[in-house]
Design goal:
mainly alpha; elongated; 7 helices
Length: about 140
């Protein structure tokens, strides 16, 4: 059912809506992290205006611009966000082994309930990280 389940994900308004919110919240987190880098006067080797989440998380960790707790949360977010945005099709097309999300024994209802729930939980982590950063500033 691999590619058939991928098609179920594409048809799921809840999943696609959750994924859209995830992308928007990721952009908000990127802005918060850019603010941390800017206020630190850190010189980075990339264009800060076009910085990607991974670059920002890496800079904040490497230069200890965030607490250990926030650093762990950011790594968690980055790993899962990247998986959701880059690996779903390869997962269901049998191009990669499954790691974070299952690909076997799925039912069409999982596209409407289980997978959106996973995305919504990640969004909650992003919201927590943004609140954590905002309280710090």
């Amino acid at each position: 059912m691999s590619l058939e389940f991928y098609d179920e994900l594409l048809k799921s308004e809840r999943f696609c809506g959750s994924l859209g919110r995830l992308i928007l919240m990721s952009g908000k987190l990127e802005s918060a992290l850019k603010s941390i880098v800017l206020t630190s006067s850190l010189k980075v080797r990339y264009n800060l205006r076009r910085a990607m989440l991974g670059q920002l998380v890496g800079s904040c960790k490497e230069h200890e611009l965030v607490t250990d707790e926030l650093s762990e949360i950011l790594e968690f977010i980055l790993d899962r966000r990247n998986y959701l945005t880059h690996n779903l099709y390869p997962l269901f097309n049998d191009e990669i082994e499954y790691t974070l999300l299952p690909k076997d024994n799925l039912h069409s209802d999982d596209a409407e309930y289980y997978f959106p729930k996973c995305v919504e939980e990640l969004i909650a982590h992003i919201e927590y990280a943004i609140d954590y950063i905002n309280k710090r500033n």
